């Protein structure tokens, strides 16, 4: 192998022959085998620490795939080692799906090319195309920026849920009415989402049949996404590698935010590069984040501990909404192990039931999606929450799992680069309309 590998074309042939061999053995296409080889080579060469963790059984294969793919944007070996040191403890305590999202955020800190440059290149590849499915069906596929994709899906989902609820109510009325001759069959949420997409694209507005009956105004349901932006990314300082690192804070609300942020910016020290993140997805480019920041009406100011990344406080006081804002910043998604449903589709759940004396405070609340909220109350699953928002889950058979707030990973600084006097790092979180 080594002998032929010296020449480029020879190496390519050896590679293909090996792929064909593995393809035969595994019963997969040679191109699939090539991808497996490539991933294995990158794991062994670029991330030996992750390979060791996989061999030792501390993480799974899906974890390593996430680590290697997110780490593909890092060129320098020292930067790769630093990224591996940060991402491995995360992978060891999170499910592959969550670990992959956190890996994209961590990899961003160590990448040589900025997210802006990579995003500009990737965005040039946006397109829409069709794949035939047979039986008179086809798939419409689209590649676009992540914020738009999540916003479109959110808007379709919210419209679909309203439509489905109305249809179920209609069915129930028909069932209860002895005179009714037919019972309508409600659509599933998936079907309703697809129908709304067609209506919006072909007619320019959502299906109007329910709106006409005065039941809902679907057109008024806008998309919602949750974007978290460090102050430096907001100011466009990301490319210089600076970050706001003193105890200064950014006020919430419109133009004040930017004015105060500028004052805070005066006390710069070089530290980890801030990365804007989209809840449910991971890192996004700062330019998109800044545009969203300008469009949004409301801001939540989030102060985080510079040592641990733990969320310390979220500003502006109105008891229930105040706590919900805190939880949105701290939790980012449903807290059931491995779940990534975003806060907008989750309930704030009392860890210890209010009926059993549980207080309505951030120490006793966490976001759970509908599915896991129901599961918690209907099955023998137990949960405990500590002062830092870490939740320990206990299964019906007594297995324990710890779920740490995603903010602890997201806001934690890159190792050792923090200014010594800093104790808090302000982070602004807009709620995009
Ligand atoms: Zn969930």
Report a brief summary of the structure.
This protein is α+β, with helices and mostly antiparallel strands. The N terminus and C terminus are likely disordered.
Radius of gyration based on Cα positions: 25 Å
* Average predicted local confidence, pLDDT: 75
Major sheet characteristics: 6 strands, antiparallel
Number of helices: 17
What amount of the residues lies in strands?
A: 15-25%
Our count of domains comes out at: 3
Structural class by helix and strand composition: alpha+beta
Instruction: Write down how many β-strands occur, each being a DSSP E stretch of 2 or more residues.
Output: 15
Bound molecules: zinc ion
**Poorly predicted regions:** 1-6, 210-216, 237-273, 416-433
Spatial separation of the terminal alpha carbons? 58 Å
Walk me through this protein's architecture:
The protein is of the alpha+beta class and 433 residues long. It folds into 3 domains: 2-114, Arc Repressor Mutant, subunit A; 145-220; 225-432, no CATH class. The chain contains 17 helices and 15 strands. A hairpin with a 5-residue loop joins β8 (298-305) and β9 (311-314). It is globular, with a radius of gyration of 25 Å. The structure holds zinc ion. The site of zinc ion (ZN) has 8 residues, from β11 and α16.
